[in-house]
Amino acid sequence: MENLEELKSEILCKINAVADLKGLDDIRVSVLGKKGQITEMMKGLGSLPLEEKIALGKGLNVLKSEVESAIESQKKVLEEKALNEKLANETIDVTLPIRPETQGRIHPVSKIYEEVVAIFGEMGFDVANGPDIEDQFHNFNALNMPANHPARQMQDTFYLNNDPSQPFDMDTAYVIRTHTSGMQIRTMEKQQPPIRIIAPGRTYRSDYDATHTPMFHQVEGLVIDKNITMAHLKGCLYDFMKAFFELDELPVRYRPSYFPFTEPSAEMDIGCLKTKTELKIGAGTDWLEVLGCGMVHPNVLRAGGIDPDVYQGFAFGLGIDRLAMLKYGIPDLRTFFESDVRWLKHYGFTPLDLSSMTGGLSNNGGLAR
Which of 315, 316, 309 is nearest to 296 (CA)? Predict the structure, then answer.
């Protein structure tokens, strides 16, 4: 039995001193394997007298159990050590792209947003931001759109129940804003004239085809001051379109139209040349509608807390996605939102291709064609 204690001490010392899992397994095989020390000793029990066989067999079983327990315990320690070493040596930068491209692309909508802000920023416009979920006062009522206006019907507008515990009530429900025009009212409520702002952002309508999507991007413009006239509106938009399309001259025209929040109202067309294969902006035989505009309706000024007998102004609205389609020759609006990396690689811009009036807007060299 003294020999068993010495053997136990020797084996446990080896187990505790082993440095890796392979060395531990080698010890296990040398001790407990088919030809291991303990296994060979058990094979020799048959030649011993009965009393010695019982005593030695019992001791060997206890030794075997203690060795197995020690090996299992040391295995857990070595596995944890090996895992920590592996994690330390095989770190992964999760911020790296999974694709082989070394550089991402800026979406055309983001690029147009930068260009629009750059141009109107040079004109002295501030950028106003507001909520995507809007109450009906700011989205409709204050903009001179009565309850029976077609745009307020559920087939055109997304409504949200403001109290889920109660039955849906269309009269009190919130809407996911159908335009950024609500920022006109919110700005007038907080700021007295002179006002000169643009309000870019996402808008939502129940529509989906090649030129319409349920979510799209729009920029609203508002100028209010004393003695503002339609001439100021026309000059502002003309300068914007020339700068945006980067043309020295651009034919434009204004057609009478109707919008409930402006009076008089107009739609702006720009000159172009249309063929079966391309659309060229500039001098040509055709016209292309690009935006709606007009003088702010007196009812809208009153809703915003401004006296229409003292102040007047103009407003306009245009689609950022449509501008991107025109400027960069993108045929289908739906592809803007399909998250196709191949499409973005083709139409996107390099990250450092910044838009500015001094450094250039589109910098067409940055277009990934």
Answer: 315
| pTM for the predicted model, two decimal places | 0.66
In angstroms, the first-to-last Cα distance of the chain is 85
Give the type of residue at 176: I
| Per-residue pLDDT tens digits of the chain, which is 369 residues long | 557 788 888 888 888 888 888 888 888 888 888 888 888 888 888 788 888 778 888 888 888 888 889 889 988 988 998 888 888 888 777 776 666 666 778 889 999 999 999 999 999 999 999 899 988 899 888 998 877 777 767 667 888 887 777 777 777 788 889 889 999 999 999 999 999 999 999 998 877 666 667 888 999 999 999 999 999 999 999 999 999 998 889 999 999 999 999 999 999 999 988 888 788 888 788 999 999 999 999 999 999 999 999 999 999 999 998 898 888 888 888 888 888 888 888 888 887 766 665 555 665 434 443
Expressed as residue numbers, the domain containing 208 is 108-345
Residues 33 and 76 in one domain: yes
Among the listed residues 179, 180, 107, the one whose alpha carbon sits nearest the alpha carbon of residue 336:
107
Same-domain status, 71 and 169? no
- Measured CA to CA, the distance from residue 325 to residue 333 in angstroms comes to 7
